[in-house]
Amino acid sequence: MIKFLLPYISKYKKDVVWASLTIAIAAATSLWQPKLLQQVIQAIADDELSKMYPLGIQLIVIALIGLAAGALNTVFSARIAMGTAADIRADEYKKIQTFSFGNIERFSTGSLVVRMTNDVQQVQTIVMAFFQSLLRVPILFVGALVLALTTLPQLWWVILVMVILVVLISMGVFQPMGKLFGSVQGWIEKTNNMAKENLQGVRVVKSFNQEKNEEERFDDASTQLTNINIKIGYLFGILMPAFFLIGEIAIAVSILFVGRNITSDPQMLGALTSFVNYLLQIMNAIVMAGFMMTFAARGMESAKRIMEVMDTEPDLTFDAAAPSEALSGDVEFDHVSFAYPGDDAPVLKDVSFKVKQGEMIGIVGATGSGKSTLAQLIPRLYDPTEGSVKVGNEDLRHVNEKSLRNAVAFVLQKAILFSGKISDNLRQGKSNAGRPDMVRAAKMAQASEFIEKYDDDYEHIVEERSSNFSGGQKQRLSITRGVIGEPAVLILDDSTSALDARSEKLVQEALDKQLSDTTKFVIAEKISSVINADRIFVMEDGELIATGKHHELVENSPAYREIYETQKAQEVID
Ligand SMILES: Nc1ncnc2c1ncn2[C@@H]1O[C@H](COP(=O)(O)OP(=O)(O)OP(=O)(O)O)[C@@H](O)[C@H]1O
């Protein structure tokens, strides 16, 4: 953890120096106070009231210096802790941006969110605690020990017994507490995921009347989290009274052994008072060290989880040396097989085809046959396990990332828009798009009619999770974003499913006419959506079992004929 944190903390060298200095001053003042108190008591005992004033003033000044040093230390520690946390969060976010789909799926989005928020918060807490107690613990411990021993050396054994007892109890309590803190993180992640899933799927929850079930599921996880926190509370509950008891017994024993000397030796009263003070400071230092270790255990767990993210190599990187170029719309799969990362079963098996620029390809097949998977390899969301994928006659492993992103637009069935304005979302497809580009693209996607009804048309707000648009509207906006950059290759993955038949036909006609040079892959459930395609690919269990025009396939491919006839019969029933 130290190796991980050091480069971050070393950015705040000046604050580290100031935090250390101020805490050393604060610790020194708390060691000085009992000595002054001893002198005050001595002055009272000696009836030397003239000494009282300067001593009283000294006490107040020391207390004020201690207070100011403590306050300043909090400021410097907070600057280090918050700065470090912000830098880690930014680096983690940057790292996650380099992740492939596979990387993100392996962590799960919920886990990545907790690792970027709650775990960073834990690290921030430990850094803060560290700088607030960094020098305080050793200075207090050694200082109070030496001062106690010089004040009443005959009571060395009281100190020894107390230190042994406090250390033993600390070890017994802080160790299980550290373990419990570790498991708290896992349960926070689980409850966060549950809350996220429930809120995102709130329509399903409500329409299937699942509120009660969801509540129970959440309650179970939340109860587990509560139970762990209660156990931590119990341990704290034992810890504090145990320490107080040890402290009180140590004080009582000290008084018992030297108290009777007070009448014969008046100096003994002041010495005893300051000894007792130092005893408490020694105990304080050990307890603080225990807390630090527990915090460190929790922070370590979080730092480990952050480091896992930072140490993950993106399993798909683009060739930085590849030159930027305008790729043509030719697409080729050469004996491509593919299994999802972490899965052995191939989802695509030895798929080969060549598509010429400007062709329109329909892709049909049963659900789970591998249509979307095939499409995802074209913008290189994954690399094939075997074989190669080429766009513009270039193997994607040797293509410049920007060139590929400019060449291939992918429109998903589940339209995802970002909060902001419609225009912001469209500019994701073409960064310098002006209003005429937007109007032209929206017309192609049959989106202009509804966008232009808004007073602020293309500047209309997209709310979080695009909740102010219907499913069909979202799909149209998503298609608009896909076509606005006039890509060399356009993939529509079931992305007209929420459009009525007439709108779907209009979109296809517009794409045919206005994007005639663009290669189009249209994945469709209904054959009627791709009946006019230049070629139709038929997928079955990850294999490309037939290709051809509609009438050819009806004649030559029994699998295609079966799908077609089933759908035709269904249409008659409908
Ligand atoms: N991210 C993933 N990780 C692991 N397996 C996956 C993943 N996505 C899909 N699969 C599996 O790959 C197979 C092919 O899925 P794919 O989504 O490509 O099929 P599809 O033909 O597009 O289906 P549909 O018509 O239902 O969209 C399925 O068996 C599916 O379970």
Automatic annotation (TrEMBL):
Cellular compartment(s) = Cell membrane
Transmembrane intervals = 16-32, 52-72, 125-149, 155-174, 232-258, 278-297
**Topology in the membrane?**
Multi-pass membrane protein
* Keywords from the named record: ATP-binding, Cell membrane, Membrane, Nucleotide-binding, Transmembrane, Transmembrane helix, Transport
Q: Which GO terms describe its molecular function?
A: ABC-type oligopeptide transporter activity; ATP binding; ATP hydrolysis activity
Q: Which GO terms describe its cellular component?
A: plasma membrane
InterPro entries cross-referenced by the UniProt entry: AAA+_ATPase, ABC1_TM_dom, ABC1_TM_sf, ABC_transporter-like_ATP-bd, P-loop_NTPase, Type_1_exporter
Principal location:
membrane
Boundaries of every ABC transmembrane type-1 domain copy: 17-298
The question of whether ATP-binding is a record keyword is answered with yes
Q: Any idea where the ABC transporter domain is?
A: 331-566
Coiled-coil region list:
none
Name of the protein this chain belongs to: ABC transporter ATP-binding permease protein
Query: Which species is the source of this protein?
Result: Weissella minor
